[in-house]
UniProtKB/TrEMBL annotation:
Ranges for domain Glycoside hydrolase family 38 N-terminal: 32-78
Entries under Gene3D superfamilies matching the protein: Glycoside hydrolase 38, N terminal domain
A GO MF label: alpha-mannosidase activity
Alphabetical GO biological process terms: mannose metabolic process
Organism of provenance: marine sediment metagenome
Name of the protein: Glycoside hydrolase family 38 N-terminal domain-containing protein
Residue ranges the record marks as coiled coil: none
Length: 79
């Protein structure tokens, strides 16, 4: 959850920075796209039951909670 909150904070800061750097003659808006991502590495110091019972459950539960709040959120997951 902290990672998602950090990503949203960074996105807001980048948006403010982009807007503050615009010159008065520039009318184009810049769009920044952010995609949430989780890389679940089953061989990185975890036992299989830890991955299933703790890591996958926690990761996807958090994503589903955030998707309820931000339905336009895009999320990818990899192994």
């Amino acid at each position: 959850m902290r990672i998602i909150a950090t990503l949203f904070l960074i996105l807001n800061l980048l948006t403010i920075d982009v807007q503050s750097q615009k010159s008065s003659t520039e009318n184009q808006e810049k769009i920044i796209y952010v995609t949430g991502h989780a890389h679940m590495d089953p061989v990185y110091r975890w036992r299989w039951n830890e991955i299933i019972n703790r890591e996958l459950n926690k990761t996807f539960t958090d994503v589903l909670v955030v998707l309820d709040e931000y339905p336009d959120l895009h999320f990818v997951q990899s192994y």
